[in-house]
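Hello again,

I reread your note about wanting to compare the complex against the isolated chains. To keep things tidy I'm splitting this into two emails, and this first one only covers the full assembly. Below are the input lines as submitted, including protein chains and any nucleic acid or small-molecule components. They are followed by the predicted structure of everything together. The single-chain runs will come separately.
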Amino acid sequence: MNDVEVVVVGAGQAGLSSAHHLRRSGFRPGRDFVVLDRSPRPGGAWQFRWPTLTYGRVHGMHSLPGMELTDADPARPSSEVIGEYFAAYERAFDLRVLRPVRVRAVREAGDGRLRVESDTGTWTTRALINATGTWDRPFVPRVPGRETFAGRQTHTVRYPGPDAFAGERVVVVGGGTSAVQHLLEISRVAAATTWVTRREPVFTEGPFDEDRGRAAVALVEERVRDGLPPRSVVSVTGLPMTEEMRRAREAGVLRRLPMFARITPEGVEWDDGNAVAADSIVWATGFRPVIDHLAPLRLREPGGGIRMTGTEAARDPRVHLVGYGPSASTIGANRAGRTAVRAVRDLLGRSRPGRPEAGRRPERVATRKTAAR
Ligand SMILES: Cc1cc2nc3c(=O)[nH]c(=O)nc-3n(C[C@H](O)[C@H](O)[C@H](O)COP(=O)(O)OP(=O)(O)OC[C@H]3O[C@@H](n4cnc5c(N)ncnc54)[C@H](O)[C@@H]3O)c2cc1C
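Full-complex prediction:
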């Protein structure tokens, strides 16, 4: 059994930002705090994203605090660029992430501490920063007949890239950025594509500036304050219109149909009798927060969500959720890490930051592109 002051679960953007602020506040990695991550490599969920999601197609990726990601080659997969960047970040700040370590349950230890049980060991801690993201909980809506479909069903989480759909009739379901990106690239190689969304998609023009970002975050925050399950930040920001999307719209690729009523072995059907034959259905229908391991703490409200004040769980001030709800974006995760550490410092009576340990503190990380110059 290991005893620490803070356990951070997850080493994506939110977990690393938290670890960074803990370290800056004088908490020693490996002794005062540990970061546990179930992924095999640095990169958080980015390491699993499909190869055609290049760095240039990612919109609004914010660097982690204290070290800029500069001059990345926009043509390289974001999984590689961000995986390398996170690895360099962990090394530079000596964050000593333990992986692969999967946390299975967090429960009361009985002495005011929490007990964090994982597949490789158990920790007791005075505070927990949960930064487990959503990637491990893909969501597919219940639709009658789904199990009868004779073709292939793929969720974004296992999206293999467009080539796997060459010559097929493909139905893409979902109204977010991932759905549109899948649709655009599949439409170039498929025999036919059909786009289906629950709600009418909202395309937004112009830059996604701070005001729009703030308004979107406020919408998600309101739900979390009311103890309701959060909607993703991306779902309230609309779809920023790009040149590529404009061309696809003119070509008819972005013509959207409402959600179908059922799935048959041959395809999908609507109540009005319309039907589309399909070889593949791609579910770009989002994710849900990975919080099952927190179930023993009974943090959920009757509405199904965890009510929060800032990053703090209303039912347990020892628990902070970062990258959850309103902070489920790279910039939100950065800020949430800072907020959570401030609160944890207060909780543990360490409000005056200690002196960070000496360590290499580069301001920028050179990506392969700059290194090759
Ligand atoms: C396809 C896609 C594209 C996106 N594009 C953008 C964008 O362009 N700009 C933007 O700002 N945001 C974007 N986002 C959102 C953004 O990626 C995340 O909100 C942000 O990176 C925050 O990451 P995180 O640290 O919360 O989670 P993650 O990156 O998912 O990291 C969570 C980590 O926790 C680990 N973990 C999970 N469960 C456990 C457990 N039980 N025990 C131990 N470890 C565990 C996981 O293995 C993972 O390493 C995108 C999201 C998706 C799905």
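For quick reference: Residues 355-363, 366-373 have pLDDT under 50 and may be disordered.

B.
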